């Protein structure tokens, strides 16, 4: 009996350690690693093309287009390209209404972001391809600061820093903001020690010569950014390249978004697996710590909860009953709470559940090609 108790306690501790790994042990290990310096060389700044895809983003377009006009005024040679994925609102008309500010490609219907970005990349002429989202705004100095990092010939890709707007509007937004601040710090440390392991679509860039070929079913942000690492170049993060985006405030919107992203991320992982296996040991460690361990966080939480329940039962069935009653009451309070620590805890668990559901969906051979903008941002 004592042996079973020990096994259950060990499973519980390992589950807790796995959940905590990306947020506590992994950052501490990164901080202990030496800095890998950059080596800029004199020369002209590369030319650039800025690309984004849009679907039913009419509400965001006026602010987005004004932001692009400001960037174009500061960088007259910046090429601006957009792909409309069959919008049913005024998105395409608003872009075309700006004259020659943005070159627009209209898709034949819903074909997805990966397909759209490939169309834009094939048309782009800049030495550097800058990828962003339709609802993301770039600070005035973002383009100049980003291109300056390409003075080092070993740098093949540069990520920016995403700052969220509206973090106090709901518990979901607050949790999303906290999660992203942790994510940004991890990327900073990964960049300092060599490579960041993957980018999100808000703001990142690569040298056009490194743009890979890939199917429409993968997560293009991860696939394109990892091509830099696979090519033996550095993928770094620039804190001074700032993008701003409004947070998703509703749990339903955020849940669906995380399921979609996780499904496509796991599908992409399987597509990239042969190249991932050939990465350097440090990069494989980073990738596993920040991505694979986190994708299965919901499973670790479930395993830990089952181990804790079994231990409680072995101590006393009454203890297990009291614990289950307390969890049920807490779940009921969390379902109605709009703010505070209980609501935040609920959103954290919901995020883990959504990610696990997305991974499970991808493991069954299903993925998501198209997307819909969140209504609550």
Automatic annotation (TrEMBL):
Key words of the record: Kinase, Membrane, Transferase, Transmembrane, Transmembrane helix
Entry-linked InterPro entries: Glyco_trans_2-like (IPR001173), Glycosyltransferase_2 (IPR050256), Nucleotide-diphossugar_trans (IPR029044)
Transmembrane spans: 292-311, 318-335, 341-360
CDD domains recorded: CESA_like_1
Top-level taxon of the source organism: Bacteria
Keyword Transport: no
GO molecular function, one term: kinase activity
Record-annotated Glycosyltransferase 2-like domain positions: 49-211
Entry keyword annotation includes Membrane: yes
Pfam families: Glycos_transf_2
Gene3D superfamilies: Spore Coat Polysaccharide Biosynthesis Protein SpsA, Chain A
Alphabetized PANTHER family for the sequence: RFBJ PROTEIN, UNDECAPRENYL-PHOSPHATE 4-DEOXY-4-FORMAMIDO-L-ARABINOSE TRANSFERASE-RELATED
Protein name: Histidine kinase
Species classification: Bacteria, Pseudomonadati, Pseudomonadota, Alphaproteobacteria, Sphingomonadales
């Amino acid at each position: 009996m004592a042996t079973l108790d020990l096994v259950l306690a060990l499973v519980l501790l390992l589950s807790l350690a796995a959940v905590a790994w990306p947020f506590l042990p992994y950052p501490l290990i990164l901080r202990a690693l030496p800095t890998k310096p950059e080596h800029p060389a004199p020369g002209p700044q590369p030319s650039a093309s800025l690309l984004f895809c849009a679907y039913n983003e009419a509400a965001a377009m006026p602010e987005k287009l004004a932001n692009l006009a400001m960037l174009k005024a500061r960088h007259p040679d910046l090429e601006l390209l957009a792909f409309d994925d069959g919008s049913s609102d005024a998105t395409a008309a608003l872009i075309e209404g700006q004259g020659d500010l943005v070159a627009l490609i209209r898709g034949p219907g819903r074909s997805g972001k990966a397909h759209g970005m490939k169309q834009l990349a094939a048309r782009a002429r800049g030495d550097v391809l800058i990828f962003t989202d339709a609802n993301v705004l770039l600070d005035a100095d973002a383009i100049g600061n980003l291109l300056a990092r390409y003075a080092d010939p070993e740098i093949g890709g540069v990520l920016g820093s995403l700052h969220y707007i509206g973090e106090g509007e709901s518990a979901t937004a607050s949790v999303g903001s906290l999660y992203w601040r942790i994510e940004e710090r991890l990327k900073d440390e990964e960049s300092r020690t060599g490579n960041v392991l993957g980018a999100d679509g808000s703001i990142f860039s690569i040298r056009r010569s490194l743009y890979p070929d890939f199917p429409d079913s993968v997560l293009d942000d991860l696939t394109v950014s990892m091509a830099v690492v696979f090519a033996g170049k550095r993928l770094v993060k620039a804190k001074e390249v700032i993008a701003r985006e409004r947070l998703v405030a509703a749990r339903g919107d955020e849940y669906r978004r995380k399921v979609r992203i996780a499904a496509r991320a796991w599908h992409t992982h399987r597509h990239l697996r042969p190249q991932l296996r050939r990465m350097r040991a440090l990069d494989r460690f980073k990738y596993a710590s920040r991505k694979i361990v986190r994708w299965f966080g919901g499973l670790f939480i479930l395993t830990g909860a089952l181990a804790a329940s079994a231990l409680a039962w072995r101590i006393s069935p009454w203890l297990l009953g009291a614990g289950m009653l307390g969890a049920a009451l807490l779940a009921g309070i969390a379902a109605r709470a709009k703010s505070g620590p209980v609501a935040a805890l609920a959103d954290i668990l919901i995020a883990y559940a959504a990610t696990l559901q997305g991974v499970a969906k991808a493991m069954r051979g299903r993925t998501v090609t198209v997307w819909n903008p969140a209504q609550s941002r």
